[in-house]
Amino acid sequence: MDRKIVIILVLLLVSGIALSLAAYFFGVFRFDISVAFALRGEDDPAFAALMTAVSFLGDGWVPVILVFAVAGICAIRKKWIEAAFVIATLSSGIIAGVIKILVSRPRPPSFTLEPNDIFQSFNQYAYPSGHVMFFVVFFGFAGLLSWKFLEGWIRWITVSVCAILIVLIGPSRIYLGEHWVSDVIGSYVIGTFWLIILALLYQLVLYRTGSQVETVQGSSGGGQVEQGEW
């Protein structure tokens, strides 16, 4: 494994543990309240609609639908390994749930737990944000696959949409009063750590199964195009 990746993983792991311990021992920080007031003070209807729409993609069963939709596309294209790893991105929810219970940090006062929430046992807690972790891991991996298999403007649009959603989900959770900013920061850190782990495992499985596609010189622009493109 590349030394730089090891260093990044260690830094992310140490940061994630430190942020989790801080959330457990110190509760809410002053900057949590400051940022919350600043974001929630934004009363632009368009901004509110955007934040609500982005957050919706992580609500209830929507993540499961998104995951199996993308996994289905991979399966149709006979990308079985990719389909399996797309489904594996749901593991972010399990990790988030375990950490939520361990840290047990209360949600912001404005948060209301739905009575019919089937995950009440851990959704009552704030740290980390399951939405943010799902977006980082799922859309991050989807972006990786898009970069690997797509070409031209479709590749750039897909990767850009994935990146934009990852960036916006954090502020949306704070704006909607679901999380503190430190919840979001910790979620980005932990989610990025897990995304890299999944990406490394994906590359390892490709290597072990001999499924690495060869690259050939593209017919235009001198770029590389992978055999077996989508």
- The DSSP helix count reads 10
Radius of gyration: 19 Å
Secondary-structure content class: mainly alpha
| Biggest sheet record | 2 strands, antiparallel
In what order do the strands lie side by side in the largest sheet? 1-2
If you had to describe this structure to a student in words, what would you say it looks like?
- The protein is an all-alpha fold.
- It has one domain (3-107, 122-210).
- 70% of the residues lie in helices and 3% in strands.
- It has helices spanning 3-26, 30-40, 45-56, 62-76, 80-88, 91-103, 120-123, 130-149, 152-175, 181-209; strands at 215-217, 224-226.
- The chain has a two-stranded antiparallel ribbon with strand order 1-2.
- Helix 3 packs across helix 9, helix 8 (130-149) runs antiparallel to helix 9 (152-175) and helix 8 runs parallel beside helix 10 (181-209).
- The longest helix is centred in the last third of the chain and has 29 residues, at 181-209.
- The chain starts with a helix and ends with a strand.
- The relative contact order is 0.16.
Summarize it:
With 230 residues, this protein is an all-alpha fold.
Provide the fold topology.
Layout: H1 3-26, H2 30-40, H3 45-56, H4 62-76, H5 80-88, H6 91-103, H7 120-123, H8 130-149, H9 152-175, H10 181-209, E1 215-217, E2 224-226
Antiparallel strand pairs: 1-2
